[in-house]
């Protein structure tokens, strides 16, 4: 079976963020929000594996992309407030970037198929 990097990366992000929230001291709202957005990336990409239509898959991918951008913004807040170190920030920011690039490319491909 072919490896699904998008699903793999999104799972790494969601699991990693949960662990990050346990390892670093952060306020409960920030912890809740970043866990929520990163798990939404994973959930929407998982749901997109079994779409009702191409339009449904496109919608799930677009939601995942927005949630990934939100996760990245929470990471920026955490590095800005010195809650996480630079290496941790770069690790998760790069993972978000990989996911968003794949999602953007996938959205373009699906949009072209729908036309």
How would you sum up this structure, described in words?
The protein has 115 residues and is an all-alpha fold. It has one domain: Up-down Bundle (de novo design (two linked rop proteins)). Helices cover 83% and strands 0% of the residues. It is elongated, with a radius of gyration of 15 Å. The chain starts with a helix and ends with a helix.
CATH topology: de novo design (two linked rop proteins)
> Helices and strands, in N-to-C order?
HHHH
What's the tally of helices?
Answer: 4
Shape from CA axes? elongated
Percent in strands:
under 5%
CATH class: Mainly Alpha
- Which structural category do the helix and sheet elements fall into? mainly alpha
Please give the largest β-sheet.
none
Roughly how much helix do the residues carry, as a percent range?
A: over 70%
**What is the count of structural domains?**
1
> Which value, in Å, is the CA radius of gyration?
15 Å
Question: Could you provide a short overview of the structure?
Answer:
The chain is mainly alpha-helical and about 120 residues long. The protein is built from four helices and no strands. It has a single domain (about 5-115), classed as de novo design (two linked rop proteins).
Highlighted features:
83% helix; 115 residues; mainly alpha; de novo design (two linked rop proteins)
Layout of helices and strands:
Layout: H1 5-23, H2 28-47, H3 54-80, H4 86-114
Helix pairs in contact: 1-2, 1-4, 2-3, 3-4
């Amino acid at each position: 079976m072919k490896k699904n990097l998008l699903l793999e990366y999104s799972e790494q992000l969601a699991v990693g963020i949960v662990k990050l929230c346990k390892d670093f001291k952060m306020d409960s709202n920030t912890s809740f929000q970043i866990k929520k957005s990163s798990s939404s990336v994973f959930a929407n990409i998982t749901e997109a594996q079994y779409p009702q239509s191409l339009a449904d898959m496109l919608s799930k991918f677009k939601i995942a992309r927005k949630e990934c951008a939100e996760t990245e913004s929470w990471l920026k807040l955490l590095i800005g407030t010195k809650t996480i170190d630079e290496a941790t920030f770069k690790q998760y920011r790069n993972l978000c970037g990989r996911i968003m690039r794949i999602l953007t490319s996938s959205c373009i491909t699906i949009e072209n198929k729908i036309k």
